[in-house]
Amino acid sequence: DDVHIADFPDRASMMEVRLQAQDDEITLLKSSLADALRRIRLHDQLLPLLKQQTRKMKEEGKPRTPTSAPAPARCPPSRKERRNQQSIKMFIRGRPITMYIPSNIQNYEDLKMEPPPERLELDWVYGYRGRDCRANLYFLPTGEALFFIACVVVLYHINNRTQRHYHKHTDCVRCLTVHPDKVRVASGQTAGVDKDGKPLQPCVHIWDSTTLVTLQQIGLGSFQRGVGSVAFSFAVTFLCVIDDSNEHMLSVWDCNKGTKHAEVKSTNEAVFAVEFNSSDSTNIITCGKSHVYFWTLSAGQFTKKQGIFGKYKKPKFMQCFVFSLTGDVLTGDSEGNILTWGKSAADVKTLGKGAKETFQIMRQTRAHEGSVFTLCALQGGTLLSGGGKDRKIIRWSADLAPERECEIPENYGAVRTIADVDGEELLVGTTRNAILRGTFSDGFVAIVQGHVDEMWGLATHPSQNIFLTCGHDRQVCLWNTEEHMLDWCISLEDYGLCADFCPNGSVVSVGLSTGRWMVLDLLTKEVVSESIDGNEQLSVMRYSPDGSFLAVGSHDNFIYIYNVTESGRRYTRFGKCNGHSSFITHLDWAKDGKYIMSNSGDYEILYWDIVAGCKLLRNRFESKDREWASYTCVLGFHVMGVWLEGSDGTDINALCRSHSERMVAVADDFCKVHLFQYPCPKPKAPSHKYEGHGSHVTNVCFTHNDSHLLSMGGKDTCILQWKVIGGGAGDSRERLASASSASTSSPEPASS
Ligand SMILES: *[C@@H]1O[C@H](CO)[C@@H](O)[C@H](O)[C@H]1NC(C)=O
Ligand SMILES: *[C@@H]1O[C@H](CO)[C@@H](O)[C@H](O)[C@H]1NC(C)=O
Ligand SMILES: *[C@@H]1O[C@H](CO)[C@@H](O)[C@H](O)[C@H]1NC(C)=O
Ligand SMILES: *[C@@H]1O[C@H](CO)[C@@H](O)[C@H](O)[C@H]1NC(C)=O
Ligand SMILES: *[C@@H]1O[C@H](CO)[C@@H](O)[C@H](O)[C@H]1NC(C)=O
User: Fold this and answer.
1) Which of 277, 287, 360 to mutate to test the pocket of ligand 2 (most atoms within 8 A of CB)?
2) CB pairs under 8 A, 24+ apart, for 442-446?
3) Does ligand 3 come within 6 angstroms of the Cβ of 566?
4) Which of 36, 75, 346, 523 has the greatest number of beta carbons closer than 10 A?
């Protein structure tokens, strides 16, 4: 039962933060050690030379003067000197990284950084958060399915296959409800943390689903950690909210004014659902771990009555509930039962005169193997129940006789939630992040699919509108950006972390967590080649521009190079790049297909001559003018400006230059996607920033003709497709040329 995961989000995230901090510390120590070792080696090599030189100087009896002595210090340096500046240092974690300035940039100091003329517009959202959220799928009269993933609420027209997005949340959406008017929507989000780890304030947004206009923002400063459940009242416009604090505060708000009406601690146990009584807005029901509570609100005060289990075994979890036609509450529980609750008159005889009415179980109906995850009341009193383990959907008559049942395919997981389309057709949200559409007679097909665990691998096809993703769920999926659909998905034994399409476009290679990598045929999905390099995870796969080499970057600090023949079907080991003192993080091929630029976990930038036998080029200065077929290295002269000041080196997970070489998209560790101008060689360069992901963004990639950008939010299991808009005139070389000819010195650009 995945309930437990949802119970301890904070503990887990705290431990994650601590683990990350330790990881960072280890990386830093490793890099310091490598640095020290390098210095010792250098020292060892230089010592004999120095001794020799000292001896020679003594013999000559005068200090040696270099032939090209530097001019005596003069401040400030003249413009001419600045024009001849050859390198610039950037600092990551206090470590200087020298960047050599390409010779086509004559006046680095005068370069002016501006945000690019292009912008991004959210175009499509892939995925649905069914894994660990409940009651989060609705069907609107507009013909749209309403659900969420990451920070975005999606309105997906199930016939037209179009999407609209409510995009105003600042962190992950956790719960959702629709007003009885079928227009207003309330969605609640988690608190999240800002860039410096400070907690932000969770809130609920009330918005209009026809116009997407925010009507009210409720509870800023009132909720702790996040918002777990929300419900609208039927008659009067109240909103009931349960937050994620230890006490699970239950509060009732006036939707129109945005003011709090009443508040009470509900329970220290997990709470899963809340609803108003449909015919009495002073009545609220909540359920969760081993409880169902019946609340009455009167004069701003709550009174609570516990549902009494009596002779029935108390289930571990009360997962969900609905109201029957007669106003009774029906609960679904972890024992697989539907319990019918009824109000019993006060037992004055045994309990005395002051005794009050009680809520007791009137009937127990066996429904599912494992949990009843969801209940859905249809018109006319019919009921649907969904199994959290048996993957069954059962239709019940108003008097709880089973009428129909069906089972959803295993690969979609179990039933998370059900939404009624027209009494016949249903939408089913599943625990493996899929949404299915169908009927009892015709069965169900997926209309929304997604990954179910952290993702890192992303690659776009060289000439078609398709892309590939892979992640910790061991799935490799091929998607179509035009159809907005999954083409296919296969399961591997190990999980994939990186991928690249062969320039020929008929195969794709995927690097796995064990050092194994495989090449898949796009049409047949068959493995056409397979190999293993080292026994650590692979972090990057990259074909040379003409497809004749494949570079495989590993966490064992090596880059393995393969000859590729038969259009990506045959691979023979050519060599190994040995020289990095930490794991390989990123690499790119030169346009001529002969050289590689690579980054590692300790912030090294190294250059390699591949055809000369994977030779490390010790003089980095000599590679300053090389042109790169792709630019994904996060450390390099051309992308220096994407880093924040004082960065710890893990703030940027990935970046990607557009094919036009006019812009660079950046995936950061704070849930954001940035768009910078390319080249971007000056610190504090301004960018356009885009929100939507609810987790560290692990990868970004432009489609083959730069019409779209894809971004992936590791743990939020969400893929966002952004449309690139604007731009048009000029190319990067023109921009650089015009910057070079600018004679006025530029002020420090302000970050946008
Ligand atoms: C769906 O398609 C129909 C027919 O083309 C159109 O009239 C309607 O406006 C569309 N609705 C949405 C929400 O896109
Ligand atoms: C809901 O309200 C109706 C009308 O007041 C009442 O008859 C019914 O018992 C209530 N249900 C619960 C579960 O309190
Ligand atoms: C691999 O590529 C290199 C450089 O192009 C070439 O010299 C060598 O013969 C190739 N090896 C094989 C086995 O194809
Ligand atoms: C890729 O290679 C295959 C096999 O050699 C060939 O059939 C196909 O036409 C090539 N595709 C492209 C786009 O060059
Ligand atoms: C890119 O390709 C898409 C789909 O094939 C096409 O609609 C679009 O016009 C192209 N965009 C550019 C900038 O070439």
Assistant:
1) 277
2) 443/406, 444/406, 444/408, 444/409, 446/412, 446/486
3) no
4) 346
